Amino acid sequence: QQAQVAEQFRPSRELVIRVPEVARRLDISRSKAYELVKRGQLPSLRVGATVRVPVVALEAWIQRQIQGGAV
Fold it and tell me: What is the DSSP secondary structure assignment for residue 67, as one 8-state letter?
């Protein structure tokens, strides 16, 4: 019963991802992904000690890169 309730409230997709996952999805190094976050070029937030990137922000960033050129 409790598992069914939890499943109902689970988003249909991830809301945030860790920086290594950003790197994997963009096919870039982890250090490059962390650099983009550190420079503020890629929006992020902290959850405790971990840096997370909202998936919608990553998608918007990709669209901006397509329209305006590479990083």
Answer: H
Is 59 strand, coil or helix?
A: helix
Q: Is 65 in contact with 57 (CB distance < 8 Å)?
A: no
Q: Report how far residue 67's alpha carbon sits from residue 22's, in angstroms, rounded to the nearest whole number.
A: 20
pTM of the model: 0.76
What is the DSSP secondary-structure string of 35-51?
Answer: HHHHTTSS--EEETTEE
Taking only the tens place, the pLDDT of each residue in 4-25 is 655 566 666 789 999 999 999 9
Give residue 9's identity as a one-letter amino acid code: F
DSSP 5-44: HHHHHS-SS-SEEEHHHHHHHHT--HHHHHHHHHTTSS--
